[in-house]
Amino acid sequence: MALFSIVLLAVALDYVLGEPGNTYHPLAAFGRWAAWLEQRLLIPEQTPARQKIAGVCALLLALLPCAAALPLLLLTEAWQTLFGIILLYFCIAPRSLQQHAEAVRTVLAAGDLELARSRVAYMVSRETADLDAAGVRRAAIESVLENGADAVFAPIFWFIVAGPCGALLYRFSNTLDAMWGYRNRRYQYFGWAAARLDDVLNWAPARLTAFGYALLGRTGPALRAWKEQAALLESPNAGPVMAAGGAALNLRLGGPAVYHGQLKAKPWFGGEQTAENGDIARAGGLVYRVLGLWLILIAIGGGFA
């Protein structure tokens, strides 16, 4: 039951303490390390092939800190358990996700659209300055559903599969994808390797998350949306998660949005109802219910291990 204890205590720490500030968060330090590498290796004037090679080198160098966790495998079981709890706590962020979403819901309910646009901008990569209230709601809900996979279930999945090094590798890879994985002029080739690695590492966790959303929501419609709508979305992993999650909540999500100054004809997906302010909290509730299910399954699995 050691695995269950580690995951449970990491989730409990996150719930009580929330996400640590950037000053103390290892991911913030990792982000600075990645930015330093980018400054030295990304040369926009190079050919696409050379930029791809530079991106592969940057990715490999950026992930070197994962090796620092290997000597910890030589520690006693008690110290490995303690380290595992702390590291997994740093790798997951369900409470932070809930807090960001609640901040958006609160100001929308108060009628302050300008502040709601500002707060939802912390959660999404689309431009938010011209969003109406409905657009802010959809953006917040989509972020909760997608980041449920990225910032909650995928780190736990890789911790189960490969221990602390697995969780760390995934979280670093996901951070690099968030920094370099854009299909724009600057990162189209340099960020290719980081984006592909994140796609690979997210494949299984994303589909387990989508199935969890379906199982604990409107199961039939969610599974149909996954089958029929996921391929319409650009991301191979966010597609199943958001299509299934939207339909599980019966919320119509998506629609055209502006990214980096360009309007994208993002498709509509999910369910049928227009999102209301309370649906932002419903999305967070779905993530926590699936997290509870995962804890039960991990406990059962540990009992048979």
Automatic annotation (TrEMBL):
Pathway: Cofactor biosynthesis; adenosylcobalamin biosynthesis. GO terms for cellular component: plasma membrane. One of its GO terms (biological process) is cobalamin biosynthetic process. Keywords: Cell membrane, Cobalamin biosynthesis, Membrane, Transmembrane, Transmembrane helix. It is found in: Cell membrane. The keyword Cell membrane applies. It is a multi-pass membrane protein. One of its GO terms (molecular function) is ABC-type vitamin B12 transporter activity. Pfam families: CobD_Cbib. InterPro entries: Cobalamin_biosynth_CobD/CbiB. The chain crosses the membrane at residues 53-74, 152-170, 286-304. Converts cobyric acid to cobinamide by the addition of aminopropanol on the F carboxylic group. Belongs to the CobD/CbiB family. This is Cobalamin biosynthesis protein CobD. It comes from Methylomonas koyamae. The gene is cobD.
